[in-house]
């Protein structure tokens, strides 16, 4: 087999690939922020005294965790217009990523919350704090510290999951690489380069998470 490597199309398309990396970062960050909101809100509802809310959160988590992300993003993009809700590819991708990541974040954060001793919650209530204040000031930060490695690993995975957004033509790295490959037919060169880009993106995300941890979560346990 005589195959000559030619990275010329990749070099010519480098500006577009770098913009695609930026698009991937933006999708990932927006999806993570939405996932955190869904995760924290879901935990509060999951442990509430209102049974319908608890069952709704349980059903949401089971539905999202047991269906493929591709099906979820297709449903939002193709099925919701039947109900009169039309979204562009990028907002669709952000919402789908946030919902998918939020379902996993609910269970991860809930595990951290359950690791907090009940005595700390009772002490907060005894000091006259409301339940919302106890949750925010006494439970949430130690819980986030406990589950931070698991949560950030899930968010790195969510960053890589942004590649599936190319299925609805959202602007990100994989969609850009598909266009370059379809124009040049240099599949190996394009996807080899994209693999390296995704590795760098994941490494940068892990470093950012490590810096955040060092800034906000490094304090004595006792």
UniProtKB/TrEMBL annotation:
Example of a GO MF term: transmembrane transporter activity
A Gene Ontology term for the protein's cellular component: ATP-binding cassette (ABC) transporter complex
Bilayer-crossing regions: 17-43, 55-80, 92-113, 146-170, 190-212
SUPFAM superfamilies per the UniProt record, alphabetical: MetI-like
Locations listed in the record: Cell inner membrane; Cell membrane
Domain ABC transmembrane type-1: from-to ranges: 21-209
Keywords: Amino-acid transport, Cell membrane, Membrane, Transmembrane, Transmembrane helix, Transport
Chief location category: membrane
One GO process term, biological-process aspect: amino acid transport
InterPro entries in UniProt: AA_ABC_transptr_permease_3TM, ArtM/GltK/GlnP/TcyL/YhdX-like, MetI-like, MetI-like_sf
Pfam families: BPD_transp_1 (PF00528)
Membrane topology: Multi-pass membrane protein
Keyword Cell membrane attributed: yes
Assembly and interaction partners: The complex is composed of two ATP-binding proteins (GltL), two transmembrane proteins (GltJ and GltK) and a solute-binding protein (GltI).
Function: Part of the ABC transporter complex GltIJKL involved in glutamate and aspartate uptake. Probably responsible for the translocation of the substrate across the membrane.
Family: Belongs to the binding-protein-dependent transport system permease family. HisMQ subfamily.
Protein name per Swiss-Prot or TrEMBL: Glutamate/aspartate import permease protein GltK
């Amino acid at each position: 087999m005589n195959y000559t490597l030619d990275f010329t199309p990749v070099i010519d398309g480098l500006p577009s690939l770098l913009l695609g990396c930026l698009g991937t970062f933006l999708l990932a960050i927006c999806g993570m922020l939405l996932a955190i909101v869904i995760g924290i809100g879901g935990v509060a509802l999951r442990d509430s005294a209102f049974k319908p809310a608890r069952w709704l959160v349980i059903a949401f988590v089971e539905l999202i965790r047991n269906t493929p992300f591709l099906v979820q993003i297709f449903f939002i993009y193709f099925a919701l217009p039947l109900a009169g809700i039309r979204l562009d590819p990028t907002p669709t991708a952000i919402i789908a990523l946030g919902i998918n990541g939020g379902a996993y974040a609910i269970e991860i954060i809930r595990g951290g919350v359950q690791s907090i001793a009940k005595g700390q919650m009772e002490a907060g209530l005894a000091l006259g704090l409301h339940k919302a204040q106890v949750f925010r000031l006494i439970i949430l930060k130690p819980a986030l510290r406990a589950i931070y490695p698991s949560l950030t690993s899930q968010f790195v995975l969510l960053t890589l999951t942004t590649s599936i957004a190319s299925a609805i033509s959202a602007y990100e790295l994989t969609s850009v690489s598909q266009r370059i490959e379809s124009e040049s037919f240099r599949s190996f060169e394009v996807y080899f380069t994209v693999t390296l880009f995704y590795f760098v993106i994941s490494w940068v995300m892990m470093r950012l998470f490590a810096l955040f941890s060092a800034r906000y979560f490094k304090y004595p346990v006792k």
